[in-house]
Amino acid sequence: MNELIEGLSALASIEVVLCLLLGLGLGLLVGMFPGITATMAVALASGFTLTLDPVPGLCVLLTIYVAANFGDRVPSILINTPGTPASIATTLDGYPMAKQGKAGLALTMSAFVTAGGVLLSMVIFIAAAVPIATIARDYFRSPELFA
C-alpha cells in the first residue's frame, strides 16, 4: 500500500501534470487521424521523451496511448472511418447513432467505456503485478531454465 501512495505522490508534480496534458492532446489528435495507430504514435514519441526524466517520459507515452484509444472513436462515429483498427466495431453502432442525431451520446458512451476499461485494467495490473513478478523470479532464475 505504501508503494501505491508513493506512486500517486509522484504524479502530483506540475511537470508530470503538464506531461499528462501534452500526452492527452497529442493522443487525441493522433487517434482522430485515420491510419496512425496508438502504437505508432508511442513509437514516434519515444524519441522525444528520451531527454525527460523517467516518470514524466512514461506519463507522456502512456497518456498518448490511452488518449489515442479514445480519439480513434471520433472519426468512427462522426464520418464512419475508423481512426485505428481497434475502432472498427465502433463504426457499426456509432455512425448510425450519429445519423440519427445522437453523435454526442455515442461519443459520451465511448468515453465512459474507454475510461472504465482503462481503470479496470489498471486495477487488475496493480493486483497482479507482484504475484506475477514473484512467480517469474522463483521459477525463471537462470536463462537456461527459462529457455
Commentary on this structure:
The longest helix is centred in the C-terminal third of the chain and has 37 residues, at 103-139. The protein has one domain. The chain is mostly helical and 147 residues long. The two termini are 34 Å apart. It has helices at residues 2-10, 14-32, 38-46, 54-71, 73-79, 88-99, 103-139, 143-146. Helices cover 78% and strands 0% of the residues.
Task: Please provide the ordered H/E string of secondary-structure elements.
Answer: HHHHHHHH
**Structural class, from secondary structure content?**
mainly alpha
Q: Name the overall outline.
A: globular
Number of domains: 1
What portion of residues belong to β-strands? under 5%
What is the first-to-last residue Cα distance? 34 Å
How many strand segments? 0
Please report the number of helical segments.
8
Unreliable sequence segments:
none
Largest sheet: none
Helical content stands at over 70%
Cα-based radius of gyration, to the nearest Å: 18 Å
Mean pLDDT: 87
Nutshell version of this structure?
The protein is mainly alpha-helical. The protein has helices at 2-10, 14-32, 38-46, 54-71, 73-79, 88-99, 103-139, 143-146.
